[in-house]
Amino acid sequence: MKVDTMRKIDKWAGVPLCTLISIFAIPLDLLRGKNKQPNTQHTLFIELSEMGSAIIADPAMRKLQEASGATLFFVIFKDNVKSLAILNTVHKDNIFTMRHKNLLHLAVDIIQFIIWCRRKKITCSIDLELFSRFTGLLSFFSFAKDRVGFSSHHDEGMFRGWLINCPVRYNPHVHMGINFIALTNYALGYYTNPYPTTLVPKEELELAKAIVTTEAKDTVLQKIHTLYPNYNNERIVLFNVNASDLLPQRRWLPANFALVAKQLLQQFNNILIVFTGAPAERAYVQNVIDMANNAKCVNSSGVFSFDELVPLYSVSNFMITNDSGPAHFASVTNLKVFVLFGPETPKLYLPLGGNAEPFYLGLACSPCVSAANHRKTSCTERPCITGITTVQVEERLAHFLSEGI
User: Fold this and answer.
1) Do 223 and 169 reside in the same domain of the chain?
2) pLDDT grade, residue 157 (50/70/90)?
């Protein structure tokens, strides 16, 4: 299904469904009673659509697991499930995947999800999505007695019934990593009202690092030799020029990427620029490479499997990328990552790990997407992202190549 179709279904079908189901949820919760503290024995995390958010949520999941001994479960769209394999915090047998390409597949998977939750004896659900009615419904149909999720509280709009019985007020002014840990803190019984009053220290946002074997690195380097037979230990620079269709406004202009690549190769003869991407993005990436017109720009779209991305990041010098999943995948390594932000804001979505640096203009209109509008914008000019100049990007990248800082 197209993203706009999913938004419309979530609004026009989601609101009445959430209202209807709430009629049953409220008396059911009263009948079952409320635990003094959520029972986290079998906790289900719900995050369907964002691969990057699955990485940002990892510190929150690990905290819950370490503090309570909880067995963790996760439900996610099938196309995004590989993001959970990067750190393996949730065992693969405890992950349920949903298909969303058409309504029939989705309906079948919802029924299977309900059966799966009953079999796994889910005791607590934590909805990581921002006011999605669909995930609110999934939370209820997990049959968890304790259902933790974001609440608008006194804020207007973002209605999704009364399906979340352990509400936590969403704070749009702090990083999503903090918001996710606030949900975990509620599940741990640190507070009992919607205001997450517990301090989240910086060390709780530390991201675990992926374990990368020498063999995995060697495999990646062999593929780079195949892409560029004259490779002679040049420093590998990664360009990720695409972004998902969920928010295409995040894409910096292809011509800008091409110009920066051309300028860097004119200044540094000891680098190789590897353009990354999925198999379906190969033509889009090749268009950028054709504009750069340099043999030391190579197209690796579809060449590296998802499992090989982290080893690729581990042998590279830095990556320049649109605000998208790869920026977060790289955060589990020590790779320096430069992220181009436009309609989103780094205050909320800068990758964790300490190695990410944003390019962000911070216009008066930014960010134009949020939880309140389900991340939808009608802006076509996109000055927030197109206004980031090639000069400022090229100068910063050149400085990093020269000084390493």
Assistant:
1) no
2) confident
